[in-house]
Amino acid sequence: MYQIKNFTDNDDIKIINSLGAYSVIEYQRDLSVSPMEAQLAYYCNAMNVRKRQVVCDLSKANGGITLQSGAMQWTVGDVNATTGVKGVGDLLGKALRGSVTGESAIKPEYKGTGTLVLEPTYKHILLIDTSDWNGSVVLNDGLFLASDSCLNHKLVARSNLSSAVAGGEGLFNLGIEGNGILVLESNCPKEELVEITLQNDVLKVDGNMAIAWSGSLSFTVERSGRSLLGSAASGEGLVNVYRGTGKVLIAPVSK
Length: 255
Hints:
- There is one protein chain.
- It contains 4 helices and 18 strands.
- By secondary structure, it is mainly beta.
- Strands 10, 12, 13, 15, 16, 17 and 18 form a 7-stranded antiparallel sheet that branches. The chain has a 6-stranded antiparallel sheet with strand order 6-7-4-11-14-9, with no helix packed on it. Strands 1-2-3-8-5 form a 5-stranded antiparallel sheet, with no helix packed on it.
- A hairpin with a 2-residue loop joins strand 1 (13-19) and strand 2 (22-27).
């Protein structure tokens, strides 16, 4: 048995979101500052630049929890950690996936009934139920933080690799499949993200502002116009194109 005091019950900490095994806490003030940092801390608080952490109840996790490498801060209770590697072939596959998506090659898995707390971050935490995305989500690089271990991770290639190279975009993205909870670390808060639902339609985005999209969508990089002359006249050149039926999350600015 264990008890945790002066954490989520602290009046300086607020639980801002919960889903499945995950709760997101936000520090309302940064009290751990020196006199030299006080002015910066004051203005950070005024602009909603605050520390946030994910607290995981492993007893509610579906098959355990998979983390981005280095994301764990502390655990308490019955918590068992493994590498999540199921053999040499699995290791090679994860190493390849990590090398082209910017994610850690080895993502540790935690199982048990205890509490797992992740490192604090000034980024915004998004909790996504993949069943709302028909069990398939593709992520832009660097967003993955944690997920239920029942979810499968895979490489997703652009439908048109040559155009991706011409557009200066990566060739592969991290795909998440299955039904469970996914935790993302985003530069933009949920309140600023635009969600677009397509029904056999097309979305064109100038730049890599889409942070996540349904795995059912075809993703290519194409000319903004039907011809080179049309693209030059529009001033846009190459754009990211999402075609089919599914959802896309778009940030207001590219960061």
